[in-house]
Recover the amino acids of this structure.
């Protein structure tokens, strides 16, 4: 229980301070928005990379087939 209290205190105390200071609250909000934007960008890049990898694998497979056909 003491660990939970310590954990909550570490989370809630900075929030209480933040809400008492409007400039700090605004800066915190801007940082959270930037973090969300970066997360979305990361997800999009991961999707793009996955699609690119799949296409490269297909292309490599087609090249192998063409090489095998040409060797006949």
């Amino acid at each position: 229980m003491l660990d939970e209290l310590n954990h909550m205190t570490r989370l809630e105390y900075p929030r209480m301070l933040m809400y008492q200071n409007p400039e700090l609250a605004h800066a915190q909000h801007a940082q959270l928005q930037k973090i969300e934007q970066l997360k979305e960008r990361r997800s999009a890049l991961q999707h793009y990379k996955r699609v690119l990898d799949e296409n490269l694998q297909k292309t490599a497979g087609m090249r192998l087939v063409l090489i095998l056909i040409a060797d006949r």
In short: Residues 2-70 form one domain. The two ends are 74 Å apart (CA to CA).
